Amino acid sequence: MAEIRASAGPLGRVIAESGRTVLPPDSVAESLEAVAREGDGDLGLRLFLRVLKVYDVPVGKEQYDRLMALDTALGWPGPLVYDGLNVLWPPIDTARRDASGDFGLSALTSWFEGAWQEDSARERVRQAAAADDSAQTPGSAAALLLVDVRRLLDSSLPSETITVLWLSVSGRGYNIDRLGIDARDWLRQIEDVCEERLRDIAPGYRHARPPVRTDLRNDVLRAVREAVPLLAHVDISRHWEPIPGERARQAIEEVVTDVDADLGFRLLLRLLALASVPLAQEQYSHYQELGSRFGYGAYHVTEELEHLVRHA
């Protein structure tokens, strides 16, 4: 009922201007509210969404988020809300953390884990760059990936270190070393796909890199170093050209110290998940706290690590 009331004014104006009904414009919102109040809230909301879509009523981002929260509470599939809804998306902002899960380069590596060979590598990157979370302004996935890629390209990290990062955190999902692809050339291919996506979906977007978070660098560095016992005797891709877990951890430490603590922490979460190392509840809680301070989505750390926690 609150959401129907919030849209009553815009809905009435759009209906009046459309000339598609002989009913008084205000009566539509009143009727929808009556259904929710006297009949069924679930049905009332579905009818309300249908009317918004039929009349192309603009919905602000804050209201859209509230509608998606109702979607979750009612157990609906997300498209029931967002398919066909005219959302007034804010401009792409790479400082925002609207996604519920992973994002950027750390998220891309998961697209290459396992059996993905039905696609070309470029097509796989294209799919990941277009995989905006339902809470994100379209184009955000590509823009956030572009931030990570350009930070690595502009860094002083040796290409060998970037190669180790990619191979280990993707679980050797795409063996750029065996294919003779330089790590920075691979990053440039990813950069090109992101730019292509942004030209298509947000032609007015101008890339602006958010400031590097330095306030959490020491905390992340401590977490990376405390992972030494977890990774010391672990090999990534142990069945084929294994990568020592400690070597992968060292590469992530270099990212934290020389590039970006946020990216380094996300890569650490991915590495721990790939290595399937057992975690104490205290460690897991610490990772959750760090993720919260970075502004990560509700399921970011949970999806990666919850299944690894040892329960007493």
Report on this model:
Helix 6 packs across helix 8 (140-154), helix 6 packs parallel to helix 14 (261-275) and helix 11 (217-226) packs antiparallel against helix 13. By secondary structure, the chain is mainly alpha-helical. It is built from 16 helices and 4 strands. The protein starts with a helix and ends in a 7-residue tail after the last helix. It has a two-stranded parallel sheet with strand order 1-2. Strands 3-4 form a two-stranded antiparallel ribbon. It folds into 3 domains: 2-88, no CATH class; 104-201, no CATH class; 217-308. A hairpin with a 6-residue loop joins strand 3 (235-236) and strand 4 (243-244). It is elongated.
Task: Sum up the structure in keywords.
16 helices; 312 residues; 61% helix; two-stranded parallel ribbon; 4 strands; mainly alpha; 3% strand; two-stranded antiparallel sheet
Chain-wise SSE layout:
Blueprint: H1 2-18, H2 25-39, H3 41-54, E1 59-60, H4 61-74, H5 79-82, E2 87-88, H6 104-111, H7 121-129, H8 140-154, H9 159-169, H10 183-201, H11 217-226, H12 228-231, E3 235-236, E4 243-244, H13 245-258, H14 261-275, H15 281-294, H16 300-305
Parallel strand pairs: 1-2
Antiparallel strand pairs: 3-4
